[in-house]
Design a protein that fits this description.
404 residues; alpha/beta; six-stranded mixed β-sheet; 13 helices; 11 strands
């Protein structure tokens, strides 16, 4: 990192910023390495804070004095979350442009603030999921998709290029290495994110209070990259084998030990195939090549375990009538609306016979149940690498596609 050419904050401003940064690190200690990596840039008259993709945080210290140390600390944490969660690159994956960057910024702010307000941090005038007409606990991409369908969003000042929004008017446009302007380059940023992810997971495993969205992000970042077909076979194979290994009583087959107790009839055993339901996301954002690859793999795996037909439910925000098909690849998929896979999961679980395995093929831009339906294994197959994976009892997610 090169020497800074940015003018330092005035003494009084520097003391206030240092106090707020220390308070932020104490409020969320697992974010300390990120908070102390932020490079302050004086932005008098801007009226708020912003962050660029090089971790330079633009600060209006007059506004910070009006907020006070506690609220300024909360705002610093908000800006740190933007760069830690890699919002600018996630926006690029979604092709966010000049016409949609404010919607993405709103979605990212709502996902962050939901966690911070849940920890009773005094954020000034926070944007929350309810302001977007969305449920709490969702992901940035989920909120963004919702906003694309309803662009009547309130005016909102951008948090800067580090949030995936448009550059704030106070930002310097120079790269750190090119200009000598202090900042964090991509290599250092990756190292900081991994350090934060380790701290987040450690804190969560210790039982500390940690932002739920950040825990999902951290576990996803630190998960070792394993070929998805191997993961999918394992996820499908374990519950399938647990069903096929259990015998069902069958009075049409004599028990092999019946001769030893002719006065006490006993049924024989018949090995049964697992009952499998597949919920297919038919929203407009689904990537067809990845969907075809996952369908082919699932179909082959299930046929090897003795499954000859499947219950298939196509779903966007509504679940279609269940279909019984012998080859998943022969299914005609129609849809194109919003996305709520919980509806399809509920429809699958209500089927008779009740499935032992429910596979969900989706890009992941959907709310999820907190746990699998009773008596089932829920296997979400996520076709997009830009969104954290769902978790909960009985849920075994698998990601198909590129590495994060």
């Amino acid at each position: 990192m090169t020497a800074t050419r940015l003018p330092p904050l005035a003494r009084a401003d520097s003391d206030l910023f240092a106090a707020a940064r220390l308070r932020a690190a104490r409020l969320q200690p697992y974010l300390a390495s990120a908070v102390f990596s932020l490079v302050p840039v004086d932005a008098p008259g801007y009226g708020t804070f912003a962050v660029d993709r090089h971790w330079r945080v633009y600060v209006d210290m007059e506004q910070a004095r009006r907020w006070g140390v506690e609220a300024t600390a909360a705002v610093l944490l908000h800006e740190a979350h933007h760069v830690v969660r890699n919002h600018h690159e996630r926006a690029a994956r979604l092709d966010v442009d000049g016409s949609t960057h404010r919607l993405w910024n709103l979605a990212a702010d709502a996902a962050i603030n939901d966690d911070l307000v849940g920890e009773h941090l005094p954020l000034p005038d926070p944007i929350l999921p309810r302001h977007l007409g969305a449920p709490d606990g969702g992901f940035e991409e989920q909120y963004f998709r919702r906003l694309l369908d309803d662009r009547d969003a309130r005016d909102h000042e951008t948090c800067g290029s580090g949030s995936g929004g448009a550059p704030a008017p106070v930002e310097t446009s120079d790269e750190p290495a090119d200009s000598g302007v202090d900042g964090v380059d991509d290599v250092d940023a990756t190292a900081i994110r991994r350090a934060v992810a380790h701290d987040v997971v450690t804190a969560a495993d210790r039982g500390d209070r940690v932002s739920p969205g950040l825990v999902l992000w951290a576990r996803d970042l630190l998960d070792p990259q394993v070929p998805w077909r191997q993961l999918l076979r394992g996820a499908l194979g374990r519950p399938a084998r647990s069903v096929t290994s259990r015998g069902a009583p069958d009075w049409t087959r004599p028990d092999r030990r019946a001769d030893s107790r002719p006065d006490f009839p006993r049924p024989g055993l018949r090995h049964q195939s697992p009952e499998v339901a597949v919920v297919v996301d038919t929203s407009a954002s689904m990537e067809r090549p990845l969907l075809d690859a996952a369908v082919t793999e699932i179909n082959g795996m299930l046929r090897r375990t003795g499954v000859t037909s499947l219950t298939v439910i196509v779903c966007d925000v509504d679940a279609a009538r269940p279909q019984r098909v012998r080859r998943l690849g022969d299914l005609a998929l129609r849809g194109g609306g919003g996305t709520d896979m919980r509806v399809g999961i509920d429809a699958a679980a209500a089927g008779r016979p009740r499935p032992s395995i429910i596979v969900v093929l989706t890009d992941g831009y959907t709310p999820w149940p907190d746990e699998a339906p009773a008596g089932t294994t829920l296997i979400p197959v996520i076709l997009d690498d830009a969104i954290p994976m769902p978790s909960g009892p009985g849920i075994t997610p698998v990601r198909v596609g590129g590495d994060r």
